[in-house]
Amino acid sequence: MNIIAVLNQKGGCGKTTIAINLTHSLQNQGYKTLLVDSDPQGSARDWNAENDGKIIPVIGLDRVSLANDIEAIKNGYDFIVIDGAPSIAKLAAAAVKIADFILIPVQPSPWDIWATADLVEIIKARQEITEGKPIAAFIVSRAIKNTKLSTEVVEALRQYELPVLNSYTTQRVIYPTSASEGQTVYFRTFNDATLEIDAIRNEIIGVFNGLKDTI
To answer: Which CATH number covers residue 117?
Structure first.
């Protein structure tokens, strides 16, 4: 069982969009998945209510006891994806504590890059006492293709000494449109957004498979 935490303490970075669509993508591959909404605002739970819970299972766990709560329910799942809370350091630290892989969405703007500093500090503090775990990586979110800024953000993020995924999401109308209808990008098959999410899923699964090969 693997736990993926999608975290960024800055709001509006595409965190919930990635968490929802990544969970659905994993489910499409036959994995038993669960999305944990740890944001007190409950955006993922609101989205789930729009489709009457028919797409993916979603539960809300938005207390600092997050790690213990997930530990109690994790059996039977292949992947648990945590949609992290913005601006709440204690909840972020709780997600870092239990995660196997942390995905940090960052939009291509200097403000978003700077805002990740506190989260990176929490992650590195955890890694220092747990032999480099959890694994953490940035993902560029809502990139505008063929723009200089979208290219430069990768170089800027590397100053934090964490890897940056090769896969990313771009600004596409289908992301907010599908969410507003209680859907994921998979309600339309074989569109460019599904290719983006599938690429993210495959890259993360590749990381987990690589870990298994080293054990």
So the answer is: 3.40.50.300
